[in-house]
Amino acid sequence: MKKKLIMPDLSTATHWMNQKVTRERLLGAPTLIHFWSISCSKCKAAMPIVQSIREKYRGVLNVVAVHMPLSEADLDVNEVARVAAMHSVTEPILIDNTHRLADAFGNRFVPAYYLFNAGGELIEYHMGERGAMRIHKAADRLLFH
Fold first, then answer.
1. Cα separations (Å) of 113 from 42, 78, 130?
2. pLDDT tens-digit profile of 110-144?
């Protein structure tokens, strides 16, 4: 796990969709930040799991999506909006076309899932195909202790 990661500043996003969020606004409640890309089939396959986490913990857990482009084709903000709508991504979406957010997280992978406690400290990190299920279990442990 990424040792002692504190939730980075989110203001380096190049665009915001659904709602603009700041690190300061997220502090005070646990937060799940998930990295995805429109060209990532594993990301799209995991979206229903992320949606179930968002719905199950609505009002208790902040959920934020970060779109991390994997190629030039992924830089089209309108295409990101279209794919997000297709997959019912209603949480705030931060678009990271310069990879500054990914760098701040030390992230190189999609899908990737970061679960922070209310103080902004990373408590769980998972990536890949099974990452969404693992982060769901971690959210259950955190919120149903």
1. 13, 24, 10
2. 999 999 999 999 999 999 989 999 999 999 998 98
Instruction: Work out how many domains the chain is built from and give that number.
Output: 1
- Tell me the per-residue pLDDT of 16-57, one tens digit each, with 9 for 90 and over: 999 999 999 999 999 999 999 999 999 999 999 999 999 999
Residue 123: inside a domain? yes
Helix, strand and coil content of the chain, in percent to the nearest 5, comes to: 35, 20, 40
Measured distance CA(119)–CA(44) in Å, rounded: 29
Can you list the alpha helix ranges (DSSP code H) found in the chain?
23-26, 41-56, 77-86, 100-105, 131-143
Prediction pTM value: 0.95
Domain span including residue 19: 15-143
Structure tokens of 83? Answer: 């794919």
CA triple 102-107-110, angle to 5 deg: 95
